[in-house]
């Protein structure tokens, strides 16, 4: 039986290439000397930078997630918290938070991002919407499952595999970045990535969502699986993941 971290690594999406290209361009276009990925998890969002930067470092406090990342190799991983990476001042051209900023304490995180980014360096917090576009029937069943998980979370007060507090609202990231005072310019960008998927991937992806994992025994997972198997059969189809990125350029 694969661990949560192994399933996470297998079924979650990779960052859109267009976003990585765009971030490099926003720093001035040269090859980055260092990219730092905060909350690097199993390294999905960190490994994406290999071959695009001289050095790639992930910071991840969860030992299970970090172990999977280290087994894949390629990048360096620190056990650091987003508020204290131990990296040098102004060492990074790009700092990213992929699906992770909502778990972090904003003030120490922005202070650390501001400290390790060089002047003119770029910070990006990016997240995908939980439900990919697969097929209207499948998507509706998926949304119903997430609604049920949300209801259970409200009833039980249970939160997440990673923190003892509720996640922050992602649609407030941009306002918090602007208010932090660390960025001379910050904006939002929407984009998408397309990956191949089938019924098995869909169910693996669903089980890798913290909200589902926490309440697995009490959620109608079988109904979603039956819908996915009936609609998709054995076919592999495109899964469209919608992303929202909040990007800030470090003040000089
Ligand atoms: C949803 S995962 C995202 C992993 C990876 N970035 C990705 O895109 O697949 C969120 C990660 O943030 C990490 N995390 C939570 N709080 C953190 C903090 N204060 N500092 C650094 N990482 C943190 C968690 O341990 C978890 O691995």
List keywords for this structure.
about 250 residues, alpha/beta, Rossmann fold, seven-stranded mixed β-sheet, 10 helices, about 25% strand, globular, binds S-adenosylmethionine
Brief summary of the model shown:
By secondary structure, the chain is α/β, with parallel strands linked by helices.
Q: Can you describe this structure?
A:
The protein has ten helices and seven strands. With 252 residues, the protein is α/β, with parallel strands linked by helices. The model has no long low-confidence stretch (mean pLDDT 94). It has a seven-stranded mixed β-sheet with strand order 3-2-1-4-5-7-6. It has a domain at 4-134 and 162-194 and 240-250: Rossmann fold (3-Layer(aba) Sandwich), CATH 3.40.50.150. The protein is 39% helix and 24% strand. S-adenosylmethionine (SAM) is lined by residues 12, 38-41, 44-45, 59-62, 65, 81-82, 98-100, 103-104, 162-163.
């Amino acid at each position: 039986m694969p661990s949560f971290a192994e399933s996470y690594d297998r079924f979650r999406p990779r960052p859109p290439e267009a976003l990585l290209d765009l971030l490099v361009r926003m720093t001035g276009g040269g090859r980055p000397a260092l990219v730092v990925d905060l909350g690097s998890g199993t390294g999905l969002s960190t490994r994406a930078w290999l071959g695009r930067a001289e050095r790639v470092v992930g910071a991840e406090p969860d030992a299970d997630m970090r172990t999977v990342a280290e087994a894949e190799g390629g990048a360096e991983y620190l056990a650091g918290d987003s508020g204290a990476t131990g990296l040098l001042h102004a060492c990074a051209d790009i700092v990213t938070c992929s699906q992770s900023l909502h778990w972090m304490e904003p003030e120490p995180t922005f202070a650390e991002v501001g400290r390790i980014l060089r002047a003119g360096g770029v910070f990006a917090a990016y997240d995908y919407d939980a439900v990919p576009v697969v097929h209207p029937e499948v998507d509706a069943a998926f949304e119903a499952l997430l609604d049920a998980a949300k209801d259970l979370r409200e009833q039980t007060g249970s939160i997440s595999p990673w923190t003892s507090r509720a996640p922050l609202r992602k649609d407030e990231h941009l306002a918090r970045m602007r208010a932090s005072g660390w960025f001379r310019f910050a904006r939002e960008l929407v984009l998408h990535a397309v990956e191949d998927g089938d019924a098995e991937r869909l169910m693996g992806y669903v089980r890798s969502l913290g909200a589902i994992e926490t309440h697995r025994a009490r959620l109608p997972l079988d109904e979603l699986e039956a819908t996915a198997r009936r609609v998709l059969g054995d076919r592999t189809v495109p899964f469209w993941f919608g992303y929202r990125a909040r990007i800030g350029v470090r003040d000089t």
